[in-house]
Amino acid sequence: MTAKDCGHHDDERKKLYRRLFAGALGFVIVVLFLILLIWLILRPTKPHFVLQDATVFAFNLSGGNTLTTTVQVTLAARNPNDRIGIYYDRVDVYAAYHGQQITLPTLLPSTYQGHKDSTVWSPFLYGNAVPVAPYLGVALTQDEIAGTVMVNIRVRGRIRWKVGTFISGGYHLYVNCPAYINSGGRNNGIAVGPAAIKYQLIMDCHVDV
Asked: Which SS3 state, helix, strand or coil, does residue 61 take?
């Protein structure tokens, strides 16, 4: 075999490799384009959260620097999508005041929401003698004198989208619900037992995915 023949075979082999690479690349591009097209057509919308009420059993500042909190909240989540389901994976909820977490996170049960479905959770949130910054103690005292304390009910976790049999990877879920609690006495809420007060809120929450 001459050197010319060897060069001819090398050229043919290179052309074959280029065709295989171009074919594989084209296939990947088509698949990615179809996934993007389906995603744009379906247009997944993030879930809608509403804080319906909060029942306060304890919200006591001791010594100016420790806060004890026991509250039960009712959270409603709705899937607004017509063709997309939502898996809620390891989602927890906690209370915060002026950006500081004041209760332990409470884990919500894993849930699947079908199209246009709604889910309601009623978790208890506990924080026993949680140390707070001195300025927060001052702010809380001022809010109580003013008659309204704003506590943020926050949800964090991961969700997945379900389109037909396809299930996406995990996406971070962040929810912030403002809860305005009147501190002017039991007449501002509904008495629940000897010590608890239930406040009807119906507050829309800010959701980030």
From this structure: strand
Comparing 168 with 179, the larger pLDDT belongs to: 179
- Helix (H), strand (E) at residue 15: helix 3-42
What is the distance between the terminal CA atoms of the chain, rounded to a whole angstrom?
A: 65
DSSP secondary structure letters along 22-48: HHHHHHHHHHHHHHHHHHHHH-----E
Predicted confidence (pLDDT) per residue in 120-141, tens digit: 999 999 999 999 888 888 898 8
Task: At 96, list the tokens.
Answer: 């915060």
**Mean of per-residue pLDDT scores for the chain:** 87
Q: Are 124 and 75 in contact (CB under 8 A)?
A: no
Q: How far is CA 172 from the centre of its chain?
A: 7
Residue in the structure block whose two tokens are 């939502």: 86
Cα(161)–Cα(169) distance, rounded to whole angstroms? 8
- Do residues 175 and 156 make contact, with C-beta atoms less than 8 angstroms apart? yes
- In whole angstroms, how far apart are CA 134 and each of 64, 102, 110, 129, 152? 7, 14, 37, 14, 19
